[in-house]
Amino acid sequence: MTTAKEIAEFLNKELETNTIEDKSCNGLQIENQGEITKIGFAVDACLESFEKAAEAGCQMIITHHGMIWDKSKPVKGNYYKRIKLLFEKNLAVYGVHLPLDRHDKYGNNIVLANLLELKEIKQFGYHGDKTIGFYGLTNTNLEEIKNKLSKEGMKTDCFCYGNNEIKRMAIVSGSFDAGAYQAIALGVDLFLTGEKRYNYHHLAKENNFNIICAGHYATETWGVKALMPLLKEKFNVEVEFIDNPVDI
Q: How many CB atoms are located within 10 Å of the residue 165 CB?
């Protein structure tokens, strides 16, 4: 019988969840009872994700943005609603944040780098003494990159003040403001990230640089999706992606 604890222990090891400082309490956040035969995968540990997972017959949900972070909160309001539903539906929650951003096989950023066919991929984007993103070589232009992103359901909001021809680009999904500064210092032609920031306009313009913001949610579906075939094969369970788009 496969349990949530067994799956969590496997993922903790596979994703090396203890190797980077993170505000997220990565790992099994809510335990349940019984056998796991179906797992839902979502970006956010929100009430809607939990409801959809329960309706789909899942006994466990794996999310990128977990429910428990560095500070405990009173169990009331919407937080109470989430926990109440989880207990009622016997639904376990596993959250994995930065370890899933930075993983070199299943992470959001490596999947994006491969999607955009980067070559000679190297680590990028320091968070403390660890990197969470990647950069690499390419031979394309801004329009081709935006077309690829658009075809995959991502945004193409662009602060485009640099070269149209892109030879090197850096990637950090979601929201990572420091990444833009690090990308400029590295000398790449383009920084691809998720969330659109006010300060990117002047930063890109004054440095003759390009920043594409493809959406926080849209750039962070890739990691949990990459885990689906891994766990399906490892534990012989059903898997389903739970889509709750956020237009940010």
A: 11
Residue-number span of the structural domain to which 133 is assigned: 102-216
**Is 221 within the bounds of a domain?**
no
pLDDT of residue 47: 98
CB within 8 A of 56, min separation 6: which ones?
A: 38, 40, 240, 242
Residues in the chain, total: 248
Q: What is the pLDDT of residues 213-241, one digit of tens each?
A: 999 999 999 999 999 999 999 999 999 99
- Edge-to-edge strand ranges of the sheet holding 60-65: 27-30, 92-95, 60-65, 38-44, 238-241
Taking the C-alpha atoms of residue 99 and residue 96, their distance in angstroms, rounded to an integer, is: 6
Residue 184 lies in a domain: yes
* Within-domain flag for 226: no
Residue 196 and residue 213 in contact, taking contact as beta carbons nearer than 8 Å: yes
pTM of the model: 0.96
Query: Rounded to an integer, what distance in angstroms lies between the CA atom of residue 35 and that of residue 111?
Result: 31
Task: Give the integer Cα–Cα distance in Å for 129 and 236.
Answer: 37
**Which residues of the chain fall short of a pLDDT of 70?**
none
Q: What is the CA radius of gyration of the chain?
A: 19
DSSP of 78-122: HHHHHHHHHHHHT-EEEE--HHHHH-TTTSHHHHHHHHTT-EEEE
Report if residue 243 sits inside a domain.
no
